[in-house]
Structure formats: structure tokens, C-alpha cells
Amino acid sequence: MSTANLPGATTTAGSPRPVHRRLVLAICCLSVGVTGIDLSIVNVALPSISKDLHTSVGGLQWTVDAYSLVMACLLVLSGSMADRFGRKRVFQLGLSLFSLGSLLCGLAPGVGWLIAFRGLQAVGGSMLNPVAMSIIVSVFTDRRERARAIGVWGSVIGTTVAAGPVLGGLLVSGIDWRSVFWVNVPIGIGAILLTRRFVPESRAARGRAFDPPGQALIIVLFASVIAATIEGPRQGWADPRIVGLFVLAALALTGLLIVERRRSEPLIDLRFFRSPPFSGANTISVVMSAGLGGFLFLSTLYLQDVRHFSPLRAGLMIIPVAVGQAVASQLSGRLLASRGDRLPLVLGGALLTLGGVLLVPLTAHTESGYLLAAYAVFGLGAGLTGPPVNHTAVTGLPPDQVGVAGALAASARQFGISIGVAVTGSIVAGTGTGSLDSGHAAWAVLAGCGLVALVLGAVSTSGWAKAAAARNGERLVTAPAPESQDHLPPSPSAGPMETRKE
User: Fold this and answer.
1) Could you report the per-residue pLDDT of 279-305, keeping only the tens digit for each?
2) CA 458, CA 443: separation in Å to the nearest integer?
3) Cβ contacts of residue 2 below 8 Å, gap of 6+?
4) How many Cβ atoms are within 10 Å of 431's Cβ, its own excluded?
5) For the segment 220-233, what is each residue's pLDDT rounded down to a tens digit?
6) pTM for the predicted model, two decimal places
7) Which run of H or E residues covers position 500?
8) 294-324 in b/e burial notation, b at 16+ Cβ within 10 A?
9) 3-state secondary structure of 394
């Protein structure tokens, strides 16, 4: 038996060297897993950061949101860069920037520097998630194996986001808050070396054209919304600066709708949103991620500022979320394969709603057993909802549009995390982090996010929605423009659009 025929190995075009697919999958999971952890590990360190750097709730919000906001703005652009310049090359660049940003975050002398270095981290992180997906799809050419690989990859992301607070608690209690950033550096260096040795280079035969106007408008839209939401409670909602930010967001959205329709290769193909599953999945991504981001932010403040738990104990209290999400992600993948999108989406939305409702009446003396059960329910909901969202987003779309659609869904998730932290943080900012009254309202908002996910999960997977998606997919195939080059080639039959080399 040749090496190329061994399980988990394949051979790239034009090269006899085998590509060990499972090892490539492990490298991709390791690389994006560290970015997933970073989304949540910082939350446990927030009270320590606040005391050490003397920052307010607004500063803490920006510490979290600087990362997810920059990620949301740059994910699609990073995917296009990888198509044009090579996925392995961009993936290594992303790992390098992420590791450097992590090192600098741990050395930050003040909250302003910390926020800036978090942005640098996110620039690197934006080159990891969509590019890792592209690498996986280019290596796993069999559709069944590819589906399993993507399922593993997706569950790693979801699990690491929920596991971050546990690791963060260990590091903050045992060392210092700066260690939650430094832990990324050796992992990043190891991933760079493994990528250089084992990951094959690949790129699209014709990369997507860059869309500077669309990219600029996306940045203005996302940044102005988040900035207004975070600064509103402190400046006052009627303050001219806050009103100006909302006006700027409206203008950016209007400009985006006008400009993108006229681009031959837009950053965001607005025709995708004619597909109810795509529109529904992206909205679910936003509200689900808003719920998870807000949950982690609120839980940190509640456990450490209200209950006065140590960072380690606070991290351990959130273990049920990580376990629930990991178990439910695996179950969701099986339900997705056997029953389709609807059941895991609806069931996940219902559990997210129930978890939020259970957390609304929290007091300073709520029994730990009740708290752990509520956290587990919330984690189960997040885990069930995650995997089918990606599948629903591309339902009915042509194969050569799947990559762009996936990148947009990833951007929606990152923006959702930003808006969740911004909204829940703004609710508690008015009365202080130790206030329970504002916390009740914030938890109710998260329950509302789950309810929206439930309703949209049912609507976007209905027969009507699938039929509309199929019709839209046919129009996308036959329409002469705008053209989109896929950065996630779906199968070997897409060979003319894909080049690979060692």
C-alpha cells in the first residue's frame, strides 16, 4: 500500500508528497481553537484588568469588543487575500500577527494600549477562521469526509469559546491576568511551525477582486454601532456625539446598499440575502453570538463582583456551559445529518431562551446548584444552534458561492459577540457592575435573543424558505454579474477554480 493510500493521507496536485489530512485538520483546529479561547478567556480576567489598569465598564467592553469587532470587519477581506496570495501563506501571517498581538497585550501598560493590541490580535485572528475552512475543504475532497471534518472543526470553535473562562480562571488565579494573553504565544509559534511543515499551499485560480469602498463602509457601519452602544450610557443617548454615530451608521448602511449593487465583485453580494435560509442563518448567528458574548460578560461580573468568587472559582462555575456546548455540538451534528437543520435550530433556540429566563431572577444568594443547571441549559442551547447555522446559511447557494457565504456568516457571529457585550455592558454600566437590578434586564435581553433564534430557526428551514433559496440559487448561477470566486472549493470537480501546491 502506498503512503498516499493510507487513511488520512492524500496527495496534492502536481506533487508526490502525501498530505496527512487528519494532521492538517488538527493544525487548523489548534489554530482556530486558540482564537476561540481568546474570545472568552479574557472575560474572567476583566475584574483583575479593571483593578490593575484602573478602567471603567466601558474600558472593559472595549477590551472585549476590540477583538470581535476587528474580526467581524476583516473576515471576508482576509478570505479574499488568501485566495489571491495563497492560503498557507496568509494562515501563517495570521498566526504570526495573532501571537505578536498576544505578547503585546500581556505587556500593555494601560487600557488604551491593551485595546490597541487586542485589535492587532484580531487582524491576525481574521486570517485564521475563514482560511482554515478553505484549507480543510481543499484537503478533504470527499464530500462525506469533508462534512465530518467541518463538523469537528466547528465543534472545536464552539467548545473552546466556552472553555476559555475555565482556563482563564486557572491562569488569573495562579499567575496573573497578563498570562491569559501570553499562553497564546507558544501555541501560536507551534502552529506556525506545523503549518509550514505539513499544510499544503493552495489558492484560487482567480482571486476575488478587492472592494475598498465596501470594506470601508463595513468598518464604519460596525464600528459606529458598537461605539454608540458602548459610550451611550456614559455620554447620554441624546449627546450629539452618540446621535452622530447612529446617523453615521445609517449613512454607512445606505451607502453599502447602493455601492455593493454596482460592484462587479462586491465584498457582500446582496443577492445572497434574497435567500431566506441565508438571511435567517446570519440573523441567528448575530443573536446567538450576542447571547453567548453577553452571557460570558455578565457571568464574569456577576460571579466576581456580586458573588465575590475568585477568578478560578468563577471559571469553574462556567464549566457546565463548556460541557453542555461540547455535548450538544456533537448531538447537533448527528441531528443535522439525520433530521436536517430545523430540529437542532428550534431546540437550540428554545434552550437558549429557557437558559436566559432561568438567569433573570439571580440574586446575590442564588443556590450554586440552580446556577450550574441554568448555565448547562444555556450551553446546550448554544451547542445545538451552532453547527446547523453554517449549513443553513449556504442552503440553495451555488457551490462557487459557498466560501463567501461562509465568511459572511462568520462575520455575523463576530459582530454578534460585539453587540452582545456592548448592549449588556451598557445596561449594567448605568448602575455599576455590582447592581442586580440592571442584571435582571440584561439577562432578559439574552432570553430574547434565544427566542429570536427559535422563531427564525423555524421560519428559515420551512419548505417555503428552501424553495425560495433554490430559486435564488438558480438566479445566481444564471446571472452574468456580479461574479464571485469561491474561496472554499466544494469538490475536485471544481479543479479549474483551484490550484494547490506544496
Assistant:
1) 888 888 888 888 888 888 888 888 888
2) 23
3) none
4) 14
5) 888 888 888 877 77
6) 0.75
7) strand 498-501
8) bbbbbbbbbbbbbbebebbebbbbbbbbbbb
9) coil
